[in-house]
Amino acid sequence: MPLVFRVMKKDADGFPTPSPTSLGVRPVDVDVDGVNNVQVNGKGMSVSPSWRDININRVPKRLRPKLAGAGGSNNTFCFRAGTGPFQQGPFADGLTHDPDSATHGNIAPEAVVPFDKYRNDLEATREDWQEDES
Questions:
Q1: Strand partners, 46
Q2: Which range marks the domain in which residue 96 is found?
Q3: Domain count across the chain
Q4: Which residues contact 51 (CB under 8 A, 6 or more apart)?
């Protein structure tokens, strides 16, 4: 599993909140067909190789001492998952990592699946994520 970072809200247990804007996606983040199947084309949940590579408008303001211009909500947190290089490959059951640049990638479905299955596959990674703002 490649090492990836994402800014997300967290629940009381310390793991990311499953939601379309935290650990999940919105239907507009992917291409779906007429029967709501997610297409395999590299689109998906946005991730980066470091929290410092995430758009500064998403990185929590409290991290300004570490990243000038950070302007995101302090109700969100930087999380990481994985340990491998930031390259294309398997991420978790049913999911792949598809980088589209050196500083951005997507966690995408590995096959055409119903939107709800893709969302559930993302949520199944919940305990793989650890808060990391170092």
A1: 106
A2: 4-125
A3: 1
A4: 5, 7, 59, 63, 67, 78, 80, 132, 133
